Structure formats: C-alpha cells, structure tokens
Here is the input.
Amino acid sequence: MLEVLFLLLPVAVAYGWIVGRNKLQQELLKNKANVAKNLSSGLNFLLTDQEDKAIEQLLQLLDIEAATIDTYLALANLFRRKGDWDKAIRIHEKLHQLKLPKAQAQQIQLELAKDYFSAGLYDRAESLLRKLVDNDPLQETALKQLFAIFVVTHDWHKALEFAPQVDKTDSRSLRIALANMRCEDQKKPMDVMALRILAQKYPQAIRPRLQLARQLLAEQSLADAAVAFKSVLTQKPQWAADILPELQRCQLPEDEWYPLLSQLVHKNKNITATIFLCDWLVQTGSPAAGEQLLLEKLQQQPNIRLFQRLLQIRQLNQPAQMEALQAIDGLVRAYLDTKILYSCRNCGFKTRQQYWLCPSCQQWETVEPLSGIDGR
Here is the structure.
C-alpha cells in the first residue's frame, strides 16, 4: 500500500501545480479584465468631456498596471499643451510616486518640472530641475528649462552657478544664454577686463564683444574698440546696420575703412555698407562712382533704402529737379518710418526695436537686422 502511495505522490504534486497555475492565470485574466474595464471607462469619460472623472479612473490603473507609463505621459503632456496644468500635475505627481527604473523616474521628474513651470510654480520646478543638471541624458534639457525659469524671474545670477555644467555640454544656445545672462546681471557690473574674459570664454555670443567695443569707444580706446567691432562684423555681418555708425567714430584709416566696406558690400551684400561706401566715394571726390555703385546694386539687389540714397545724390547733382526729388524723398522716408527693422530668425517676430532676448520665443541673440527690399 505504501508503494502505491509513493507512486501517487508525484501525480498529486503535478495536479496541485496545474490547479495553482490555472488559478494564477485566472487571477491575471481577472486583473486584465479590470484594467480593460477601467481603461474603457476612463476613455469614455474623456470622450464625453468628463475629464476629472477620467483622470480619477485612469489614475486607479497606475496601482494595477505600471507598464503603460508612456500612455500616461502622453496624456499628461496633452493636458499641459491644452493649458490644463493642474490635471497634468496630478498625473505626473502620481507617476512620480511609483517605484520605477531610474531613467524613467527622472524623465517623469523632468515632465513634472515642466508642469510646475507652465503653472507658474517656479520654485517647485527649479527644485526638481536642480537634481537633474548632473544627469547626462537630461542635462542639456534640464539646463534649458532652468534658464527659462531664470529669464522669467530675472534671477540672472543663478544661471552663473551652472557655468561648469554648461561647459560640459555641446549646446551653443546654452553658452549664448549664459553669456547674455552675465551681461544682464547688474549685481556684478562688468568693466573692460571682465568683458574681455567673457567674450573670450563664450565666442559664440556677440553681445559681450559688442558691449566691450562700446565700452572701449566710450573710454576713447579707439584702436581696441575698432578691433572689437570688426570681430563682431566678421562673425555677424548682418549687424553692420548697427555697428558701422559706431565703427566710423573709431576713425579707421582709409586703407582699412575702404576694404572693410568693400567686403561687406560685395561679399556679404549688406545694404548699410553699400550706403556707407557710396558716401565715402562722394566725400573723396567721386560722386559719379558713388551713384554708379548705387545703380549697379539696385539692379542686383532692389532695396528702398538704396533708392532713397540715390534720390539724395541726384538732388545734389540736379538742382533743377531738387523740388520734385525732395517730394519723392519725403514719401520714401515716411514709408520707411513705418517699416520694421529687426526680425527673429527663430520665430519670425518682427519689431522696430532691437532685443537681445526675443519677446516671442525667448531665445537669446536671434533678433537681427532685417534684410530684403526694406532691410538695412
């Protein structure tokens, strides 16, 4: 009899294992059915514009099924884009409480910080982002979001704390932003030496060098100011409209002034440089050459400002027609007084005033002198 019992023991064990496995599968199926039911209910609430009930229903699923994190992230981002920041925050905060892999948890932390920023909760957003700036995959994104906070709050000095982290990234925009925030920081006024150091450290930014050139010009260090102005023109020839009037005050010798203008005219096709070169030709006794330059450029590059200068030269050369030419010049001047002077290359924002920070897209050094038929 004992022998029979020993023979039946493996059968009993196998039977118990099968029964237990079937019970486990039934529990899994039951849980999945509950998940599907809750998910279906949540979606129905969304479709019927009952968003609060939908969120409550969907958040309950987090305790049952944490594998669908991407779905919840997408839903929260949708709410954030719609301006429903409180709903996005509720979802991200619930996700933030889950025990998830480090990379996933940090991504949720970043998204929650964006929610706080959108809702104007800058202190909370800053606290979360500071924990991410040393994280390689998210470092650049976290720094940009932090800098966005400092722009809104005008806490320029806080940005300077993150110079080491910025230097570790390959981000050109972060370096430009940091240099501009240093220029904005009135708590630490910069002298010529400080501006030189900043310009050398962040050559991507033009503001420190332009500020350095203007400071040198104010101190009558004309040669050094000219060098600084020309370095900006080399990098950003489109800024000639603003720089050439100041550079002219540096009293460059003719053997430097003429080649500089010629390069800007013929290589960079700059309108303001063409006008300056025309004036130089007129002043040096070659009015016909100046007029011919304008005519050639108008054929190649139609521009209202070049046409206006041609009218002004014709007034000098044709006194008999001065009254008519003055009337036309007045109309052109009135037209140009209404035109924009600067445009953001990033978002297209247009203005007559120069901004270092675009009021529209909040990017540094993207608002530049406008080109084209009305441009300079």
